[in-house]
What we know:
By secondary structure, the chain is mostly helical. Helix content is 72%, strand content 0%. Helix 3 packs antiparallel against helix 10 (208-221) and helix 7 packs antiparallel against helix 14.
Amino acid sequence: MTAHNSATLPTPVAVKNPPRPQHGRRGTALASLGVVAFSLTFPATAWGLESFGPWSLVALRSVLAAAIAGAFLLARRVRPPAREHWAGLAVVAGGVVVGFPLLTTLALRTSTTSHAAVVVGLLPLTTAALSALRTGARPPRAFWAAAVAGAAVVLGFTLAQSGGSLSAGDGYLFAALLVCAAGYTEGGRLARTLPGWQVVGWALVLCLPLTVAGSVLGLLYEPVRLTGHGLAGLVWAAAGSTFLGLYVWYRGMAEIGAPRASQLQLAQPLLTLVWSVALLGERLAPAAPAAACAVLVCIAVTQRVKQPRNDLNC
């Protein structure tokens, strides 16, 4: 959101045993904190763009997040993943660490955070659909009906806000949905053998040579105008959304289970709308809250539909 980047929605981890009551309360608090952290990704990115160009911001965000994740992996003495996991980690890195943050940052140069929040609110449905296609699972018709309805709501909202045609920012947002959903789908597969936070941590470390080079080039060719908002946005996108958010989210989900955590995540787009007004002073389009709520209803329907056992838990 950030990703992870960012404004990013992480992949659930299966939990075999039901949580104990005391763990359930702590897990709910941790998962809720993760949702709040993710909901601040787009406002933080908008602040970061006050000081940095889009390429510099994404690269610096990833470098800082990778440094934190690398230090945490070293402190915990986590061994590197087996060789067979690196190809999957590369997919996660391309979708979650690089693709989603870069595309959404490019979109936020012309789109408001409230508009982006509604469009990206479709990410859980996109991830579930790609997961079903990848595994060959056949979800019930109610699942696909809700997914199509959610896509129709977002497309209608986007066309209405863009004067009847898609803008360049909308193109970036829809592309971000696809690459991030692919990264989450692969991350769901890896999370069956590795803790979820390690999947993201190693993906960040894997991208470090690329993001360091991108940071140097970005700073050389893009103007930098340091402001308090710009620095705060960079730090939060890296440390808050990408690292802290993912860490507490996965810890919380491990204790309360993916279904309960997913219900908490339904509040994320609406929280982003609140932050866009409170922190950025944006004026919400009348259709934004209604479209966000409609998408949340569609996601809630898919959460309650019984999925085939061989489907990825993501």
